[in-house]
Amino acid sequence: QFMPSAQIPSLGFPDLKIGAWYNRLTYRFVHRMVELYSSIPKEFRHQVLELPPKPQHLGILHRADGSPIPLLHCYSEQVVPSPTDWPDSAYVNGYWFLNQPDEWQPSAELSQFLAAGEAPIYIGFGSMAGRNPQRLAKIAIEALQATNQRGILATGWGGLQVSHLPETIFKLDQAPHDWLFPQVSAVVHHGGAGTTAAGLRAGCPTIICPFFGDQPFWGKRVQALGVGSKPIPQKQLTAKKLAQAIREVTSNSSLRQQAEKLGEKIRAEDGVRNAIAIIETVSK
Fold this sequence. Notes:
two-stranded parallel sheet; 10 helices; Rossmann fold; alpha/beta
């Protein structure tokens, strides 16, 4: 988030509950970090467009004439409500989903596994498996076996490393989330914004095991919305804790119903269409 608010800190910062001054300060820090990489657009403005420098006091959220720059937030209002102190130039327009190509087809092995029993649990950490992906794979396998759950371990993009697996666990290199997630019983992942959005849209109960950045924020939102377990930070992740979270999200009927309701609301949104409408309106 770039639009300052006195009510919440910027994504990626701890929600310390120590006052509006702290929340505002987090945005000032983010803006300063962005400005450190502003040399290229400044050179383009000067050398190509032959425009005078933008007044420094205006910052990144205003044009040179002082008018506010419209800011679009591509997530759902159902997941993160807008702060009441945001200006009219800030919009929350819904997620921008990119669905899988029509020609994509699952492997015969994946289709057979999905059809062979109850819906499995998806476990994947994208490229965030860290320095010890074997450890994460071991934790995932032990947690699935302890809870008698079938599972899909996503190993692509430098993620989990596995070799020999029981028949109840499938090793997956890659599959589009919008195709796979509606067919699983729950999702376990690192809490990246995109993966979180895909799981929520599919109505999946969610377990987030964050590494850093904005991932803890999404983990807390999932818990607060009642659609998933309490997040388990990677440094604290054990097979026992993951098994407890799996039992919670697979046995709690109210949590599952809440996840399904949220998924219906998100699927009813059209973030891309909303964004186009906003852009067309503000550009007139």
